[in-house]
Amino acid sequence: MKFSLGKLLLPLYTVLALIFLMVPIVYTFVFSFNDSLKSNITWRGFTFDKWLNVCQVQNGAVCEAFGNSVLIGVVATVAATTLGTMIAIALVRYRFRFRSQTSLLLFLPMATPEVVLGAGLAAQFLSLGVPKDMVTIILAHTMFCISFVVVTVKARVASLDPALEEAGRDLYGSATQVFARITFPLLLPGILAAALLSFALSFDDFIITNFNSGAVTTFPKYIYVSAARGIPAEANVIASAVFILALVLVVTAQVSRAAKEKRLAKQG
Amino acid sequence: MNSGEFASAGADLELVGIQKRFPGFTAIEHLDLKIPAGSFFALLGPSGCGKTTTLRLVAGLEEPTNGRILIGGTDVTNQKSFQRPVNTVFQSYALFPHMTVLENVAFGLRRRRIDDPVAKAHEALRLVELDHLAARRPQQLSGGQQQRVALARAIVNRPALLLLDEPLGALDLKLRRQMQLELKTIQEEVGLTFLHVTHDQEEAMTMADTVAVMNKGRIEQMGAPEELYELPRTAFVANFLGQSNLFTGPVVGSTSEAISVDVAGQKVVVPAARAHRHIGEVTIGVRPEKLTLHVTEPVGDVARNLMGPGRVIDVSFSGVSTQYLVEIAGIGTLIVFAQNMAFGPVAHEGSEVWLSWNIEHGFGLEDDASAEPRFEADDTTRSIATQKRSSLLTELEGA
Amino acid sequence: MAFAAFSTSTTAPEPAPRRKSPIALLLLLPGILYLVLFFLAPLVSLLLTSFQAPSEFGDVGQYSYAFRWENYVDVITAYWPHIMRSFGYALIATVLALVFSYPLAYFIGVKARPWPLLQSLMLVLVIAPFFISFLLRTLAWKQLLSDESFVITSLKALSLLAPDAHFTGTAFAVIFGLTYNFIPFMTLPLYTTLERLDLRYLEAGSDLYARPFDVFRKITIPLSMPGIVAGTLLTFIPAAGDYINASRDFLGGPDTQMIGNVIEANFLVLQNYPAAAALSIILMSVILVIVSIYVKRSGTEELL
C-alpha cells in the first residue's frame, strides 16, 4: 500500500480524532457522579447519589422533562415512520405524475435550517390561533422526521427484489398477504433503522421544539432554560444513561451482524 | 523513469529469487524469470497460482518479501510504481470514471510532463481506432471499447514493459479472438515487451512467443507454445495445456533410442529423447488427437504403440472432430479426438476398439510417478471439465 | 443512513420497472398532505408574516396582514452583521469539519477495510456524540474551555495565550462549537463514498506515473466528490441556522450573535414576528441559492 500518508500518521490521527470526539461525552459522564450542589461546574467529590435519586431534584423537573421527550419521541416516530414508509414504497415501486415535485418536497425539509422550520410552524400556529402544547411539538417533530424516514427506507425498498413479491402473488397470495408476509418482513430492518433515527432526531431536537412548545418542557429545553442558572448533575445522569443505552444497542447490533456475516462466510 | 522522455524501446525484465508472502499464505515460493526485450511473454496458470501477484510485483503495486526485480538491467525493486517504466492494462480496465477517454489516455503523459499530451493521446486512440470517441466518458463505452482505451492509456506512455492482467477476460468469445489479434498486431507495431497474465491456455498459445506455465507459486515449464504442448514436462502442464492421456508403469527396457514401459501388461515405447526419466516408475503420455481408433485389431507395427481392446463408453460429436472415451481394462479411460474425415462417427458406444499412436508422439514426464499429481481442481480449465465428465460417466456406469 | 440523500446514486442497482396504480396515490397522499400542511403551509405563513404591519391599535405582538416590504429593509439594516457572521462562521466551520473529517473518514473507509468490525466500531464512535444531548455536549466544552479550566490555564502558563485572553464568548469558541457539533454530519457521507472507492483506480493512477499527492488530488478527491458535497451541505445548512453555540449561555458572547439568535429573540422574546419571519425567509433563500449553485457546479444534481 503506497497511498498512505505515512504508515503510522493516519492511524495515529484517527485515534486522536476519535478521542477528541469523545471528550465532552466523557466529561458529561464523569460529572454525573459529581457531588454537586445547584450547579454542576466544579468537581466536589464522587457520589452515586445523583444516579440513585434522579427524580428528586427540583421536584422531579428533570424526570418530567425526560418523560415528555420520550412520549413525544415515541408518538412522532410512529407517525413519521408510518407516513414515510408508505411514501418510500410508492417512490420505488410506482409511477405517478409530479414525481420530481414530490422528491423536491421531501428533500426541502432536510435542506431547511431548523430555525426556519420552527419559526414557520410557530407563525402558522400563531395565525391560526392554535395554542402551543405537547400536540404542536409532536406535529412539528413528525414533520421533520418524515424525510429522513423516506430516505432510509427507500434504500431498503430499492434493494428488495420485486420478483419476491411477484413470486408471492404467483403462489396465490392476496395483495394484503403478500405485503404482510413478504414485503413488510423484508423491509423491517430498514423500517427499524428509520424509526431509531426518527426517535434520536426527535429526542435531541431543541430548536424546533423551542418555537412550538409553549409551556411544555422537553429534556433539551430543560437544559437550555437551566443553562444560565446551572444544570443539576441529574441531567448528566439522564443524558449518560440514554447514551449508554444507545451505545449498547448499536454496538450489539453491529457485533451480531458481524458475527452473522462471519458465520455465513464460513458456510458459503 | 526520467520525466519528459519516452523509453527508447522495450527492455528486458529479470526476476531474481522472488518470494512473496502474505499474512497466512505464500503466493510465490521462489521465482527466477528472464523475459527478453521485445518479446510477447505469457504467464499462464489457474487462479491462485501467483501469476497476478507476479504482475503486481513487477508493476510495483506489491513489494516482494525477498528477491530483486530488474528492468533493462536497472534494479527497480525499491522503486514505487509511479517511478517504474512499466504500464498495466488492468483486468477491470480501471478507467477513471470522472475523466473523458482523452483525459484518461493523456493522464500518464501529463504526470510525466511530456510535450503535447493531447496530440499524443489522440494518436494512441487512433491506433486502437477509437479517436472518434475521445470526448466520451468510459461508462458510455462497450466492454471491448473500454479494453482498447485501457490499452491506449498504457501504450501511449511507451513503457519499457507493458503488463496485461487478463485484459480479455471480460469480453465474449468472438470479441476476445478479435482483440487477441489486435493486441498481437499492436505489439509487433510498437515493439514493446509484453507480459501477459492469463488463465486461458488458448489465448496464451495463440499470442505469446514464450509461455511460462505457473502453478502454486512456481514456474512448471517455460518455452515456445508448440514445445510446451508437444513435450510437456509435468502432469500439470500436460493437463493444463490441452488434454493428455497419462499412464504410469515401470521401465522394462531401455536403449539409447527408446525406453519401453509396462502399462498394465501392455508395452508402450517412448523415444528416450522425449522422456525425462529412464528408470523406475515413470509417467508417460500422449495427446488425444495423436491417437488413431481402430474397429478391428490392427496388424502389429514397430513404429506404433498399440493398446486394446477397449470399449467405447461415450461419443460426443463437435463438428470438426469427434471425441471418444475409451475404457481399457486395467488402464482406465482414454480420450481420443478423431477428425471427422467421413460422415458420422466411426465407432459407436459399446463397440470394441483398439488405439494406436506413432511412437514419436509419446512423451515421458519428469514428475515422480508416485508423487501426488500437482494438478489441482480449477474450474476454469477445460481438462478438469473433461475429467469431471468422465468420472461422472464411470459413476453412472457403476450404478 | 439518511446522509445518502445528498450523494449521487451512480452505483445504485438498476431500478425495478415501476407500475402505475391507484395504490400509489393511497400510499403517497397521507404523507404528502402532512408535509403540505406542516411544511409548505408554514413557509407560506412565514412569507405572509414577513410582510405584516403592526396593528393600528394593537398591543405589542399584534400584527395584521399587509404588504410591508420595508420589513426586509429594516431587518437587513439592523442585522446585516449577524447575517454575514452566520454565513462566515458556517463557512469556516464547514471547511474545518471537512479538513478534520476527511483523513478520519479515509482511514475508516479505506485503510480499515480488512477489519469490518473495527470499521463499524469506529463509526459508532463517530456518531456517538449524537447519542448525548447536543446542548450538554456544548456545555461540556464551555466548561472545559472556560477561563478557569485546565486547558486554558495551562495555555496561559505556557504563554501560548495572553494572560487576559478568553476563549468562551469569542468567535473562535462559536466556530469551534459549530465545527465539533457537525463533524459527524461531515464524516458519515465522506465515509459512505470513501468506503465504496475502488482502490484499483488509485493503483492505475500510480501505474500511470502519478505521485501519491497527485493520485490524491487527481483521483481520490474527484471520486469522493459526492461525499464532499453531501457532507459540506449537511454541515453548512444547520451551522448557518444554529443559535445554540452562539448563545450567550453556551459558547458565544454579545459579539457573536448569529441570525438564529436574532430570529429566536425577535420571535420568542420581542414578539416582533414580521422581523423574525423576514430574517427566516432571507436565511432560507440564501441557503437555497447556495445549495442549488453548489450542487449544479459539482455535478451532483440527482439529490433524492
From TrEMBL, chain B:
Task: Output the superkingdom of the source species.
Answer: Bacteria
Q: Does the keyword Membrane apply?
A: yes
Is Cell membrane one of the keywords? yes
> So what does this thing catalyse?
ATP + H2O + polyamine-[polyamine-binding protein]Side 1 = ADP + phosphate + polyamineSide 2 + [polyamine-binding protein]Side 1
InterPro entries reported for this sequence: AAA+_ATPase, ABC_SmlMolc_Importer, ABC_transporter-like_ATP-bd, ABC_transporter-like_CS, Mo/tungstate-bd_C_term_dom, P-loop_NTPase, PotA-like, Transp-assoc_OB_typ2
**In which family does this protein belong, per the annotation?**
Belongs to the ABC transporter superfamily. Spermidine/putrescine importer (TC 3.A.1.11.1) family.
UniProt name for this protein: Spermidine/putrescine import ATP-binding protein PotA
Give the originating organism: Cryobacterium sinapicolor
Q: What is the lineage of its organism?
A: Bacteria, Bacillati, Actinomycetota, Actinomycetes, Micrococcales
TrEMBL record, chain C:
Q: How does it sit in the bilayer?
A: Multi-pass membrane protein
Any single Pfam family the record assigns to this protein: BPD_transp_1
The record, for CDD domains, names: TM_PBP2 (cd06261)
Q: Which UniProt keywords apply?
A: Cell membrane, Membrane, Transmembrane, Transmembrane helix, Transport
At the top level, the lineage of the source is Bacteria
State the InterPro entries in the record: MetI-like, MetI-like_sf
Q: Which residues form the ABC transmembrane type-1 domain?
A: 83-294
Keyword flag Transport: yes
SUPFAM superfamilies linked to this entry: MetI-like
List all membrane-crossing ranges: 23-48, 87-109, 121-140, 170-191, 219-241, 275-295
User: What compartments host this protein?
Assistant: Cell membrane
> Which family does this protein fall into?
Belongs to the binding-protein-dependent transport system permease family. CysTW subfamily.
Q: What is this protein called?
A: ABC transporter permease
Species, as recorded = Cryobacterium sinapicolor
